[in-house]
Design goal:
By secondary structure, this protein is an all-alpha fold. It is built from 22 helices and four strands.
């Protein structure tokens, strides 16, 4: 590959990302409107500056559409599951029941927005925690905008070792780390350490959102205990088994938060009446709408089913191997730019394994939940039709933005713009580049919506750069994937999942505006620590 890394080519590569940020944050455009603009810029620069031909652009666009459709399967099934619970008024039962178990409202928000999302991220991922978490938080009285923001923070820490280690395995594969080797374990340790820091930041940020300093003081003990279990537990388990290093601590924290609710400091009813994230009118006006004969356990039936199905299929290896045999994908020819940047041919690009995919677990859980609720009379006449009509109508608007963003990322990757972007930073900064290593991971997740994709895109590059600069590769790779985890909190495609199920599609810029500073600051701290640490290791 001989793509020149010049201010012009580098500026052209970052231009669509800058335009996206400006349109979404400064001008309050939704992702549906901003994504096509970013896509057009990417196509133009690909043709003019990166010497791509129409065949390459068409091929990468088709790959993007295929990947986007897989994502939209999750969007639709997650919305379907939400609509089933909404039609049965199960969210009101969950809200009322959790309020009884956790009378401290701050602890309730942490449970529904951080701990439950961590559990979902540990077993499913792919944006499911955000799509499912937003309506759950709305169900306990959180304002829709904050009901999207809080799960974005809640799920982010699990984006490397969650989904049973999918993103971590991608990093190890891309960087050439042999499973079980010293380099593998040290890299996992640094990655988990950086993620633990972010886990603490996420918990404290939620307290701050809820009630500033007063809530920080009240929630500090709970955050420390829960983060010790989640972040500390993950760090220890990475040295034993990376596959379960997120899932097990997430499960334990789900149990522990209920015990925290019995401590003297949390067992009494407590709230900040003027909390800016709570919709007091919603809570008081809809309190009595919940079905009186539905228990909290029954309200959670679809989620219990989701957890059971996911665990059985993903953890029981014989079942996983058997169901995973069914895969299908599209074939694509080899393409190359005028600079010789080659995209290899693929007989089965990004294969979909339908029986082990998150959308299948969501769909089955939604259908079984629908049948269960209908049998008990909680979904009346015409309810089934309303569930499907609403789920389709809510999915369609987000489809445009998801498809546009994914195509944009594929064209950037396929024309070499992504590589130029990363190389330009490294070439210009030398060892100072280590400070920006987590930003490369963040950038990858921002563009693709997936820490796994970010690790695939940049894992090899980060390893090569670390060796060329003569710095500790474990630190650099840890910064890469922890940055990618943080990036999942501001990824437009994940934000869209939340705004769609929260029914505030078009508010993506407002969501990003409120959380961007925290994510960037945390990434700076990780980068600065890594830079200092490489001088001693």
């Amino acid at each position: 590959m001989m793509i020149p890394v010049t201010p012009l080519t580098w500026g052209a590569a970052i231009l669509p990302i800058i335009v996206l940020l400006i349109l979404m944050i400064r001008f309050q455009w939704g992702a549906t409107e901003a994504a096509p603009v970013g896509l057009l810029i990417t196509v133009f620069t690909g043709f003019v500056l990166y010497k791509a031909n129409i065949r390459l652009i068409a091929s990468e666009s088709a790959k993007g559409i295929w990947n986007a459709l897989i994502i939209l399967l999750i969007v639709w099934t997650a919305i379907l599951m939400y609509q089933v619970s909404d039609e049965a008024k199960a969210f009101l039962v969950i809200r009322n029941g959790m309020r009884k178990l956790l009378p401290n409202e701050l602890l309730l928000v942490l449970a529904m927005g951080w701990i439950f999302e961590s559990f979902l991220q540990g077993i499913t991922g792919f944006g499911v925690p955000v799509a499912v978490g937003a309506p759950l938080l709305i169900g306990i009285g959180v304002k829709p905008l904050w009901a999207v923001i809080i799960p974005l923070f809640g799920q982010a820490w699990g984006n490397t070792f969650g989904t049973l280690g999918a993103a971590w395995d991608s990093l190890a594969m891309s960087a050439g780390l042999a499973a079980g080797s010293r380099e593998y374990l040290v890299t996992a340790l640094w990655t988990a350490a950086f993620i633990w820091f972010w886990n603490v930041i996420a918990g404290l940020a939620m307290c701050w959102f809820y009630g500033k300093a007063k809530a920080l003081k009240k929630g500090f003990t709970a955050v420390l205990i829960l983060s010790l279990i989640q972040g500390g537990g993950e760090l220890l388990l990475t040295q034993v088994n990376t596959t379960i290093s997120c899932f097990v601590p997430a499960c334990v924290s789900l149990i522990v938060i209920l015990f925290l609710g019995r401590l003297n400091c949390y067992k009494e009813e407590w709230c900040i009446e003027e909390s800016s994230i709570m919709n007091r009118a919603f809570t008081s006006s809809s309190f009595d709408d919940a079905p009186e004969d539905m228990t909290l356990v029954q309200a959670f039936v679809p989620y219990f089913l989701l957890s059971a199905l996911t665990l059985v299929v993903l953890v029981v290896k014989p079942i996983n191997l058997f169901l995973g045999q069914v895969k299908f994908g599209l074939a694509f020819p080899e393409t190359s730019t005028g600079y010789g940047f080659v995209n290899a041919a693929s007989d089965c690009f990004s294969p979909l394994a339908p029986f082990t995919h998150a959308s299948m677990f969501l769909f089955l859980s939604a259908i079984l939940g629908l049948l269960y609720y209908k049998r008990h009379g909680w979904i009346g006449e015409g309810g089934v039709k309303r569930v499907f009509v609403k789920s389709v109508s809510m999915t369609m608007p987000s489809g445009i933005s998801v498809i546009g963003l994914v195509i944009m990322s594929k064209i950037m990757d396929g024309t070499g713009q992504t590589v130029v972007l990363a190389n330009g930073i490294a070439n210009a900064l030398g060892k100072v580049y280590v400070i920006l290593a987590p930003f490369v991971g963040l950038l990858g997740t921002f563009m693709t919506g997936s820490n796994m994709s970010s690790n695939i895109l940049f894992g090899g590059f980060q390893m090569t750069t670390a060796k060329l600069l003569g710095v500790n590769s474990a630190l650099v790779l840890g910064a890469q994937s922890s940055g990618g985890a943080i990036g999942s909190a501001i990824s437009p495609s994940k934000i869209i999942l939340g705004t769609t199920t929260a029914n505030i599609l078009g508010s993506e810029g407002e969501v990003m505006k409120k959380i961007m500073a925290i994510c960037v600051l945390a990434t700076v701290v990780i980068g600065a620590f890594a830079f200092v640490a490489v001088s001693f290791i």
